[in-house]
Design goal:
The complex is a heterodimer. Chain A is mainly beta. Chain A is built from no helices and eleven strands. In chain A, a hairpin with a 4-residue loop joins strand 7 and strand 8. Chain B is mostly beta strands. In chain B, strands 2, 4, 5, 6, 9, 10 and 11 form a seven-stranded mixed β-sheet that branches. In chain B, strands 1-3-8-7 form a four-stranded antiparallel β-sheet, with no helix packed on it. The chains are: A mainly beta, B mainly beta. The interface between A and B is medium-sized, with 24 and 29 residues.
Chain lengths: ~110, ~110
């Protein structure tokens, strides 16, 4: 069983839609939760960072963490064609983990005009 | 944009060749990582380093090796490339930013072994 499962699969939405991306995880040691955005032929870039449970909002993006359910989400409001990319959730246990990240398999998002 | 660079961006090479993928960062970060990424799959950690002269294998078994002689440089070497090594290789370094640590990624090297 993978430590981190990400869904949904490839997603195609019209411009202006609300997008919901989700990850579940099995390792209760994870404390730091991130969402990375990866454009085609580029490396991932950090989009949102959350420590422990709670919500964090940054513009059109909201990240939610529910540690009791081992579930994290990313919401994108008023989606734009420029949001078309692969979104990766990532997690880290902190402490002596040396900053190693465990990633989900990514969701390819296409926002069409 | 992050100050971490990978060369080459694309490489097509024959089976049995020795190759070195270069990764350099100018941010002075101690922690550096190599991840392998296949289409539709998660990034898998293959090597990491937490400082000069320290290297460790990651969670995914890999036939590659790494070295860390200088803080800014973390090359990955395949002694004898095989078609199974065809993948995208991403280098990252980790450092403090606005109260938390962030991993900065290079643009990746897409390796094809024929």
């Amino acid at each position: 069983q993978k430590e981190v499962e990400q869904d949904p699969g490839p997603l195609s939405v019209p411009e202006g839609a609300i997008v919901s991306l989700n990850c579940t995880y099995s390792n209760s040691a994870f404390q730091y939760f991130m969402w990375y955005r990866q454009y085609s032929r580029k490396g991932p870039e950090l989009l949102m960072y959350t420590y422990s449970s709670g919500n964090k909002e940054d513009g059109r993006f909201t990240a939610q963490v529910d540690k009791s359910s081992k579930y994290i989400s990313l919401f994108i409001r008023d989606s734009q064609p420029s949001d078309s990319a692969t979104y990766l959730c990532a997690m880290n246990a902190g402490g002596t983990s040396y900053g190693k990240l465990t990633f989900g398999q990514g969701t390819i998002l296409t926002v069409h005009p | 944009e992050a100050d971490i660079y990978q060369t080459p961006r694309y490489l097509v090479i024959g089976t049995g060749k020795k190759i070195t993928l270069e990764c350099s960062q100018t941010m002075g970060h101690d922690k550096m990582y190599w991840y392998q990424q296949d289409p539709g799959m998660e990034l898998h950690l293959i090597h990491y380093s937490y400082g000069v002269n320290s290297t460790e294998k990651g969670d995914l078994s890999s036939e590659s090796t790494v070295s860390r002689i200088r803080t800014e440089h973390f090359p990955l070497t395949l002694e004898s490339a095989r078609p199974s090594h065809t993948s995208q290789y991403l280098c990252a370094s980790r450092g403090w930013r606005a109260g938390y640590t962030e991993a900065f990624f290079g643009q990746g090297t897409r390796l094809t072994v024929v």
